[in-house]
Amino acid sequence: MPSLVLQTSFLGDTVLTTPLIAHLATTDVVDVLAIPASAALLENHPRIREVLVYDKRGADSGASGFMRVARMLRTRKYSSVYLCQGSVRSGALVWAARIPERVGFSTSAGRSFYTVRVPYFDNMHHAARLLSLGMRNAESEPSREALRPRLYPGDKERAAVDAALARARVATGEPFVALAPGSVWATKRWPYYPELAKSLAPRTRLVVVGSSADTPLAHAIVDAAPGRVVDVTGQISLLASAELIGRAKAIVTNDSAPLHLASAMGTPTVAVFGPTVPEFGFGPLAQQAEIVGHTSLACRPCDRHGPQRCPLGHWRCMREITPQAVADLVRRLLPP
């Protein structure tokens, strides 16, 4: 019987689940249950038989939606489920679906519904933690390359990126650096992307990626380096964004989803960390990566995700990371 991977967390968590999926697929057929946005990221994945959508805040919300999804899962007769998202609702869902083996972390809120509880190690990268659900109680972290996630943009995504770059008159094969200035958490948005663009523009074209919510940030970057910056925020899908990032010579990104897209596509990465730290388990996994953060602040880290406002009001963790420091790291990653 097939296995199910349940991942209904943030977009970055979905990307970091792909090493677990690949591991399970070496011995079993694997389906994935994901929220709509994350499901789109997993299109074309060769190790996944089917991506099932759980719209827990939309069409599948409430008791009726919960039971509808539970019945759907029950008919598929999964032998095992790996719970990468550990809420009580997720645990209850797979229990109601009568999946015999339910594997999750021993620290999860929904652990009372699990039949197998795996230790959660704080000192591991999150991709390694998720992989341990399938490897059972692994206490050592695999190599970065073994942990590197994978995404698989297809012809549709390649065509969308070709069209977006052509509209901006970026020549085929012209080198560029991607900039990802956004984050849903306000304090994780490094404020100096316009200044960075002005510094890098004489050497390379720049492409700003993100959702439509990031478009105002992109406009400020475009204005800082007229004619050298392309704004594609809100114009292409997440998987197409991965394709675009995969074409970049490097990316500068906050601690947000584009960081993990870059890891999946193997793009050299400069990751800017403010209120959070890589030690939480969400640092870059690309082979070439540089991390910049204000290491001398006693107040850092202040939050697992990043608050909307600095608790102390000074936001020094981001304000004191200079554009020059980040630009130097980008130049270190670029080919001569």
Provide structural commentary:
This protein is an alpha/beta fold and 336 residues long. It folds into two domains: 145 residues, Rossmann fold (3-Layer(aba) Sandwich); 179 residues, Rossmann fold (3-Layer(aba) Sandwich), CATH 3.40.50. The strands form two sheets. It has a six-stranded parallel β-sheet with strand order 3-2-1-4-5-6, with helices on both faces. Helix 4 crosses helix 5 and helix 8 packs across helix 11. It is globular, with a radius of gyration of 20 Å. 48% of the residues are buried.
Write the layout of secondary structure elements.
Blueprint: E1 3-7, H1 11-16, H2 18-25, E2 30-34, H3 36-41, E3 50-53, H4 62-75, E4 80-83, H5 88-96, E5 101-105, E6 116-118, H6 126-135, H7 144-147, H8 155-167, E7 176-180, H9 193-200, E8 205-208, H10 215-224, E9 229-231, H11 238-247, E10 250-254, H12 257-265, E11 269-273, E12 289-293, H13 316-319, H14 323-333
Parallel strand pairs: 1-2, 1-4, 2-3, 4-5, 5-6, 7-8, 7-10, 8-9, 10-11, 11-12
Helix pairs in contact: 2-6, 4-5, 8-11, 9-10, 9-14, 11-12
